[in-house]
Design goal:
- The complex is a heterodimer of chains A (332) and B (331).
- With 332 residues, chain A is α/β, with parallel strands linked by helices.
- Chain A folds into two domains: 170 residues, Rossmann fold (3-Layer(aba) Sandwich); 80 residues, no CATH class.
- Chain A is built from ten helices and twelve strands.
- In chain A, the strands form two sheets. Chain A has an eight-stranded mixed beta sheet, sandwiched between helices.
- In chain A, a hairpin with a 2-residue loop joins strand 11 and strand 12.
- In chain A, helix 3 runs parallel beside helix 6.
- The longest helix of chain A has 18 residues.
- Chain A starts with 9 loop residues before the first strand and ends in a 15-residue tail after the last strand.
- In chain B, helix 5 crosses helix 6 and helix 6 runs parallel beside helix 7.
- The radius of gyration of chain B is 21 Å and the shape is globular.
- The chains are: A alpha/beta (332), B alpha/beta (331).
């Protein structure tokens, strides 16, 4: 299968993920579309329980059994959601790299760091000799700014700091020259100066190698400086998406606007306006627009029909009231 | 919301410190034998009615300092004063009385609330320190629920039935139950989603005004600290490296570490992000069991000179003014 010329790197259409539990069905992802071009960074942002991680895990076949997935996810001519487990395994850690929040969960505590990177390389290139793979692992560590890689390759994960472990996890993710990188809260567990290092590294890799990256985060601020596109998720749906600058400028959806108004900033002392209420449980979603009980702009119609994404002011917004919402005040 | 700047150091005509830590040192016996100095000679004054923000990355000692101040862990050396009364060596009986004035709110409200107690009982429990009867306790509990904006019927629920934001409100109500004057807030919003975080920050500010509370606010999130603090102390590897009024510190950081720390925090505004130059520090925070000689930050500092390895810079005022910096070559 070859990739059609001009087709995006990844095209997700109407992705739905439903978890079956004893108490019934929980719709975690309720029909999302995403398009990612090579060399680009797409930020997927939302609060806990919005479905951002479940959506990404669905692409990689990593949701627990009992999760029912539908829709399509076209990547290099194949629909990831229709691949057999064996075929999907070839993509995972091969053409698709993953970086997770907790690098310890991706590393084996009883194996040396160098061996783990080498193993990831051999898994996808079985004909490579151990020695060559080890050499490549050390080279990769050096390229990802892990100082003194020869010595460090012989250490165990617990002997590494959090930031170094995340670098190793990134080394494993990019070891086999992926075209797509999925990073799920890669810096949430890290200190802010280390976060800056890791983000710089991820952006550099994306730009230099022409990868496409999906960066999943709860931190809108993190995306402001690095993402080309932003998709804001709420209760299993994308409520606003578009080029980063435009989304931050328009804040066309009341939820995006509320999120930004509740964020403190370091460059100005601003009054915080909270959204009020809490995000709904995916097991008990409100009728109509899932945001309407917390929305200052909602009217009767919002409680009945679910809005779809429509172009408004340069961004896609899923809101019945998008025409009625005044443009945002200038940020300080 | 603008807040009145408070002066940095107590002096004539200025509010007296309600709480003071003098040269607090805390040494732990390390796992592998080598002692770890979590706090090295830290001095701080909390002024009445102010919020003093305490920031720094993991291992900088900010939470250890909070625990030392409450004597949840015992400092190895130094002195603690509450309204000028020393209490580091105070007897258990006196400490119990002091704890009425000095309360703490923890990061994870779920871990700090008893799972099998009802909310009303959790809030009422610290009142056993007070000589008040059951009826009064009940009335006060109802008032506290209202004060932290929780519906009265939530008093009958268990912690697992509450949302994260509601649980943190319970944690705050419990701390307020004994009518404290000082509340140590240890990462009070870092476990919460942003839309909930703003509610709690606004609540804390309102409570401070209504009850004239003094806060020691510990957080790793600098934007949050800027938002709530009158003054801010920045810590690195068991030391305070800079202390200044919040607006002053954020507008013009003087210690290289403060500069790097601030520059690493993303601003939720693409245009502002484009204008910034980021200082990306190399390397990790050194092992606290084996801190660098001289200035502890020098191994990651782009301004370090040989002198920095030999002499430890003291926290002092480089200019006339109240700002304190521990650096040989401040900005």
């Amino acid at each position: 299968m070859t990739r059609a010329a001009g087709a995006p790197l990844l095209e997700v259409r109407d992705l739905r993920v439903t978890f079956r539990s004893r108490t019934g069905e929980v719709a975690a992802v309720r029909g999302i579309d995403l398009t990612l071009e090579a060399g680009r960074i797409l930020g997927l942002v939302g609060e806990s329980g919005c479905g951002k991680s479940a959506a990404m895990r669905a692409l990689l076949g990593l949701n627990p059994p009992g999760a029912v997935t539908s829709g399509a996810a076209w990547f290099e001519g194949a629909d990831l959601l229709r691949l057999k487990p064996r075929e999907l395994r070839r993509h995972r850690g091969g053409s698709i790299g993953m970086v997770l929040q907790n690098p310890l969960s991706a590393l084996n505590p009883v194996h040396r760091i160098g061996d783990q990177i080498a193993e990831a390389i051999c898994l996808h290139r079985p004909r490579l000799s151990r020695a060559r793979a080890r050499g490549e692992a050390i080279e990769l560590m050096a390229r990802l700014s892990i100082a003194d890689p020869e010595r460090r390759a012989g250490l165990y994960p617990h002997e590494f700091s959090g930031g170094m472990r995340q670098r190793v996890a990134i080394a494993i993710a990019v070891a086999n020259g992926p075209r797509l990188l999925i990073a799920d809260e890669p810096t949430t567990a890290l200190d802010v100066t280390v976060q800056a290092q890791i983000i710089e590294l991820l952006v550099e890799l994306t730009r230099a190698r022409g990868l496409g990256m999906i960066l999943i985060t709860h931190d809108l601020g993190l995306l402001a400086g690095i993402a080309d596109q932003v998709a804001v998720m709420y209760a299993g749906r994308i409520v606003e998406t578009g080029p980063t600058e435009e989304v931050f400028a328009a804040r066309g959806h009341p939820y995006t606007r509320g999120l930004l108004a509740s964020l403190p900033r370091i460059d100005a002392r601003v009054g915080l306006t909270s959204i009020g209420g809490s995000p709904p449980s995916p097991a008990r979603l409100p009728e109509g627009c899932a945001f309407h009980p917390r929305c200052p702009f909602s009217v009767d119609m919002c409680a009945t029909g679910a809005p779809t994404l429509e172009l408004h002011g340069g961004v896609q917004v899923a809101c019945h009231r998008r025409e009625a919402i005044p443009p945002p005040e200038r940020a300080p | 919301m603008m807040t009145q700047p408070l002066s940095l150091r107590a002096g004539p005509g200025l509010p007296a410190p309600i709480l003071e830590a003098r040269n607090i040192t805390k040494v732990y016996a390390g796992v592998s034998g080598a002692p770890v100095t979590a706090l090295a000679n830290v001095s701080l004054r909390l002024l009445e009615g102010e919020t003093l923000g305490l920031v720094g990355e993991s291992g900088c000692g900010k939470s250890t300092l909070a625990r030392c101040i409450l004597r949840l862990v015992e400092p190895t050396a130094g002195e603690l004063l509450y309204r000028e009364q020393p209490y580091r060596a105070a007897a258990a009986e006196d400490m119990r009385r002091l704890r009425r004035k000095l309360q703490i709110v923890f990061q994870d409200p779920f871990a700090s609330l008893h799972p099998r107690m009802r909310v009303a009982d959790i809030i009422a429990e610290p009142m056993r320190l007070l000589p008040i009867g059951r009826q009064l306790r009940r009335e006060r509990t109802a008032m506290l629920l209202e004060r932290v904006q929780l519906a009265p019927d939530l008093g009958g629920r268990y912690p697992h039935e509450l949302s994260g934001g509601q649980r943190q409100r319970v944690g705050i109500a419990r701390a307020l139950a004994v009518e404290p004057e000082v509340v140590v807030l240890d990462e009070p919003v870092s476990a919460l989603d942003v839309s909930i975080q703003a509610d709690i920050l606004n609540l804390l500010r309102r409570l401070q005004e209504e009850l004239r509370l003094s806060y020691l606010f510990i957080a790793h999130d600098l934007a949050v600290v800027r938002n709530v603090s009158h003054r801010v102390a920045v810590m690195y590897l068991g030391k305070v490296v800079e202390l200044a009024g919040a607006d002053e510190l954020f507008a013009r950081p003087m210690h290289p570490y403060t500069r790097a720390l601030l520059s690493a925090v993303p601003i939720p505004d693409p245009a502002a992000e484009r204008r910034r130059t980021r200082i990306v520090l190399t390397g990790d925070i050194p092992n606290p069991a084996d801190p660098p000689s001289g200035c502890r930050f020098r191994t990651r500092c782009w301004k370090a000179k040989p002198h920095c390895a030999n002499e430890e810079p003291q926290l002092s005022a480089p200019h006339a003014g109240a700002r304190l910096v521990a650096c040989h070559y401040p900005e």
